[in-house]
Design brief:
Blueprint (H helix, E strand, L loop, with lengths): L3 H5 L2 E4 L7 E3 L14 E4 L7 H11 L5 H4 L28 E3 L1 H7 L5 E4 L9 H14 L4 E5 L3 H13 L2 E7 L5 H9 L3 E5 L3 H15 L2 E2 L5 H17 L7 E5 L4 H15 L8 E7 L4 H7 L27 H10 L3 E5 L1 H12 L7 H15 L9 E5 L7 H8 L26 H8 L1
Parallel strand pairs: 5-13, 6-7, 6-9, 7-8, 10-11, 10-13, 11-12
Antiparallel strand pairs: 1-2, 1-3, 4-5
The structure holds ligand F0G.
The site of ligand F0G has 23 residues, from helix 6, helix 10 and helix 14.
Amino acid sequence: MVSATQSAAAELVCFNKGCRARYAITEVLYNCPKCGGLIEATYPGPLADPQQLKKTFRERRLSNRPLDQSGVWRYRELLPFLDDDRHVVTLREGNTPMLDAGTAAQYGGLAHLTFKHQGFNPTGSFKDNGMTAGTAQAVRLGMKRVACVSTGNTSASMAAYAAAAGLEALIFLPHGNISFGKLAQALEYGARTLQVEANFDEILKLVRALADRLRIYLLNSMNPFRVEGQKSIMFEMLDQRDWRVPDWVVLPGGNLGNTSAFGKALREAKDAGLIDRLPKLAVIQAEGAAPFESYWKRGGEGAFGPVAKPETLATAIRIGDPVSWPKALYEVRASDGLVEKVTEQEIADAKAQIGSCGIGCEPASAATLAGIRKLTAQGVMDRDSDVVAVLTGNVMKDPDYIYKYHTGQLEAPGGVKIRSTFGNQPIVVPNDPDEIAALLA
Ligand code: F0G
C-alpha cells in the first residue's frame, strides 16, 4: 500500500524527550516500558514529492477502491504503519463535510466560520477515523479481543469496527453517565458491554490493570494507532481547502487524544512540504472537567493536577485525568495555540446556535463555538480570522439533552438551571383545525 521500505521502517518511539526509546511497530505498547511515557508511531522521511502526493490524494476521490474511498486510508502515505492493506477494515469513514455557518459565525464574533463536521462519520463521531487504524493494527497483530473504556463515542465506534472485522468487543462504560444514543450503538453492534460504577478515569485505570489478564488489545486513544488514524481529520480538512492553512483550528478537549493527533498531523504535513505554516490549536474544555485548561493557565509547569470528580453535561468530555496531556501540551505549544474553558450555559447556548444553522452537533462539540465566542470577546481571536472548528459528534447522539434544553428542563451538575436562551418549545394542540389555524395565523 505504501512503499515496502517505508512501512518496514516504521517504529514506535517513546514520546518522552529524555527517553525516546525505540520499539518495533508490532509491539503491543500503550506506555514506554522504560519510563512510562506515551508512545507514538514514527516514520523515516522524506516522503514523495508533495505536489505529487496532493495530486494522488485528489485522484483517489474518483476511485471505487474501498481504501481510496476511506477518508483515512486515502492519505495512507501519511500514516504508513501497515505492511499489508488486507488488514484494513473500512466503513468508508472520514469524508466529512466542511460547512459554512453564518449564524454561528456571527454568534462567535467572527465574519466567517467553517465547521469540519465529524458527526457525518459511519457511527456519528470522529472516533471512526482513529478506529479504522486501531482495528487494522489489531487484525495485523492477530488479536481476537479488543476493548475500550469510553464516555460513549469510542465504544460505539469500536463496537462497529470490531463487528466488521470479526473481533470480540468488550466495552467498559461509566454507569449512568453516557447518552443512550451511544450506549444503544454499542448494544446494536453486538459488543459485550459492562457498566461500571465509577467514572471514566477510574475505569481506565481498572481496565489497564486487567488488560494482560483478559488478553485484550486496548483501543483507547493512548493506543498510538488510533492517533495515526485521527491525523487524517486534519489532512482531509487541508485537502478540502486546497491545502490553504487556516489561522485557527478549534476543538473540544477531553482525554486529549484528538489534540495530540491534530498537532502531530499538522507538524508532519509541514515537514512533508504539504503546508508552509501551522494553524494555532485552540482546545476548549468544559468548566467542570478542565484540568488541562488549569494546567495551561499555570504555564504548563509542575505537576499536572487531575480533577477528581469531573462534572459536565457534555458527558463525552467528562474526564478529569486525561492520559494524553503531555502530547497535547507539546502540540498546543508547537502551534502557538491556547487552552480555554467554557461554562455549561455557554455550551448549551452555542449548541442551539449551531443547530439553528441546520447543522447540529452533540454537547461536547459545541464547546468549540462557545470557546470562539469567548476568545473573540477577549480580543485573542480576530473577527476576520480564518477559523475551522471541529464538530466531533452527531446531533442525534444525545437527544435527551436537546429536549431538556428546548423545554427549559436542563440542569447543570449541582442542580443549577440552564436557561433555554434559544429554546424552541413543542406546542401541544387539540385535534381542531380552527384552533390550529388561529395559532398559526
Ligand atoms: N467530542 C466528543 C464527541 C467525544 O466523544 C470526545 C471524546 C471528545 C470530544 C474529546 O476528545 O478525548 O480526544 O480529547 N470521547 C472519548 C470517548 C473519551 O470515550 O468516546 P479527546
